[in-house]
Amino acid sequence: MTSSNRSLVSGFLGSAERFPERPAVHVGKRPYSYAELRDIAASYASALDRHAAPEAPPFTALLASRSIEQFAGILAILMRGHGYVPLSRTYPASRTVGMLDRSGCRAIVADEESSHALPDVLAEAAAPLVVLIPEVDDVSALRERFPRHVVLGARDMTPAPSYGPRIAGEDAIAYIIFTSGSTGEPKGVTVAHRNILAFIDYAADRYEVTERDRFSHMFSVTFDGSVLDMFTSWARGACICCPSQKELLNPGAFVNRHELTLWCSVPSLALFMKRFGSLKKGKFPSLRWSMFGAESLTVDIVDAWHEAAGGSRIDNVYGPTEAACVCACYEWNPAASRGDVHRDLVPIGYPNPGMKTLVCNEALEEIAPGETGELLVSGQQVCPGYLGDPDLTRKAFLVPPGRNEIYYRTGDLVVRPRGNGPLVYLGRLDNQIKVLGHRVELGEIEAAIRQETGVHGIVAFGWPPTPGGAEGVEVFVEDASFDAADLRRRLAGVLPDFMVPKKFHAVAKIPLNENGKYDRRALQRILEAGE
Amino acid sequence: MSVVSADEVRIFIIAELRASFAENNVDVAAVPDDFDLMKMGVIDSIGLINLLGSIDDRFAIEVDYDDMDTDDITVVGPLCRYIEARARKRSA
């Protein structure tokens, strides 16, 4: 296949031809072969096509988690020539509806477990939707309650073995991932097929993925880490192994039960495994490559992992969603890498082929080696921008002075390497934090509380800190009269659960620093004192 | 070393999760043995990590997933009995 007629689904379709009988995914207690998964996806795609409004924008939403519907749904959406928009049943309905409206989705694929979230979404949705719940036989209750929408269940499905997939152009959008936005609205990052294919091609080669591999699926599909394991596996005929919610609680047993060869997770999961005795020496003989990303990777975690998976090479992978999953990586060498460690952090390494990095000061001028500045990235993986937000896109994707290409401003603080040294990630320039791997803009939480309470003085913290970010969020509120339990309940109606503050600190007055800004350091001392 | 009983662990767990039980309208005086903390929404996976961490601290035992049936890890009765057995092993 030439590069001009490929899309993100092409690798899967090729593997379905080459390895029809090999397992493509293991989910819900059983494996599904490539031929079987392709046929299921084709039946979904065909059902959606039969009922779709002809003028609908080329996006279809996915409301499914750790189910066959999740995997077949993504493939079906791509086979329709659409981009997929992953949603979460744990998000408040208003947030989900906002994402549907803004992306223009007129169709949703939902799994049985997520379908309980549908009534609130269908009640609020502005436009009529086609809702496919392919594994549920009886959808009459939803159908009767929401006559404005078309609700399809298992009985509306027919096999479609001759379904002809539509290959979207490489500039078309393959997926939209919504991330937390500092102004209070989530940002929709649009990623084109050519952006993500550049990465998948590279990753499949770097990790030498073959049809004999078995790859973990630890990330939610609302997070683009999931794109790495799904599409590099499918490009080469490998099998994705998807843990159930229960299996997620004991990842070590999961690795061995499925004899995984490839692993990718947030470092905090490895830390969790270490704490509960799952990283004993030689525990994971089957692993040959392990990738950690989305949070800072510390030396103690990487050492513990190496002890348990001595046969596995280890990569620290870095990349914002805006640069298609992973745009730089660093292979940890237990003997030689110690000299590259900075403040106990494993470097994020070197840009992928076709990608360039620049470390700048506030004027976007390159700084001297050894200095600290903002990381900018350029190249084939940099995505077109934010959905329906040209202002924000212009601010984040720009041509720095003296350069000819568009660079994406990551907002990440790094040390500019000396000579051929690797990049080291130090943290964020702004108030974005990671809560258990999720990107969270503290400003979005503050804006939501301001809206709910009318109180202006609000300062949010990621707290308590973990090596990779924070366990949760705690908030200072300049008002003693609010009811914390009630406020938490109301925030749960507008924010995803990982953004809902675990604790509120009522203060008479938020201290200011000498610049007249909220004195975050003084507040942090209060948190550290455990008051 | 003192011996930890499953009942003691149970009292500790209920005290630790009192607020979550209340939020989910669970009567803490009548939590059945087969109550699944996760299925019933009292804790999520992070809550479980925190809970196991508190149990570690309180009873000075090291939770080790390798000798535990993790299918039952979120069910009150089996979890308490596991901690009891683990403490006994430590004392032995």
Textual characterization of the structure:
The complex is a heterodimer of chains A (531) and B (92). Chain A is α/β, with parallel strands linked by helices and 531 residues long. Chain A is built from 15 helices and 29 strands. In chain A, helix 2 packs across helix 3 and helix 4 (93-103) crosses helix 5 (118-124). The longest helix of chain A has 18 residues, at 34-51. Chain B has helices at residues 6-16, 18-23, 45-59, 76-91. In chain B, helix 1 (6-16) packs across helix 3 and helix 1 (6-16) crosses helix 4 (76-91). Chain B is mostly helical and 92 residues long. Chain B starts with 5 loop residues before the first helix and ends with a helix. The interface between A and B is medium-sized, with 19 and 18 residues.
Radius of gyration of chain B: 13 Å
The number of distinct β-strands of chain B equals 0
Instruction: Figure out the total of helices of chain B.
Output: 4
Mean of pLDDT of chain B: 83
Strand order of the largest sheet of chain A: 4-3-5-6-7
End-to-end separation of chain A in angstroms reads: 62 Å
Number of helices of chain A: 15
Whole-number mean pLDDT of chain A: 92
Show the largest interface. A-B, 19 and 18 residues
Percentage of β-strand residues of chain A: 15-25%
Percentage of residues assigned to helices of chain A: 25-40%
Number of E-type strands of chain A = 29
- The shape of chain B, in one word, is globular
